[in-house]
Design goal:
Mean pLDDT: 84
Largest sheet: none
Low-confidence stretches: none
Number of domains: 1
Number of strands: 0
């Protein structure tokens, strides 16, 4: 019985091609899954960025309000007196600010 090396080689070539196609398909699946995960991460990062931007705007508004409050406390005796009276730290006849 004589082996046909050509037949053996062509059979191995077909198996190799099938294995290559299988590996290529698996690689494609992994790449598509990675791209989908990257897209989800991008959407999540955009959402977090918008939330942080809103938080920064709120913090800046609070900071501005506090800055105005400090300025009023330092320079507006009527405002200071009204606060002290509201907190019941000054009586009706007491003079708070000189």
């Amino acid at each position: 019985m004589k082996l046909g090396w050509d037949r053996l080689r062509s059979g191995a070539g077909k198996a190799g091609a099938a294995l290559g196609a299988l590996l290529l398909g698996m690689l494609g699946t992994v790449l598509v899954a990675g791209a989908a995960e990257s897209a989800r991460e991008g959407v999540e990062l955009a959402r977090r960025s918008r939330a942080l931007d809103a938080e920064i705007r709120r913090a800046r508004a609070t900071n501005d309000a506090l800055r105005h409050e400090v300025k009023a406390l330092e320079s507006d005796p009527v405002y200071l007196e009204s606060l002290l009276r509201g907190w019941r730290r000054a009586g009706a006849g007491e003079r708070v600010v000189e």
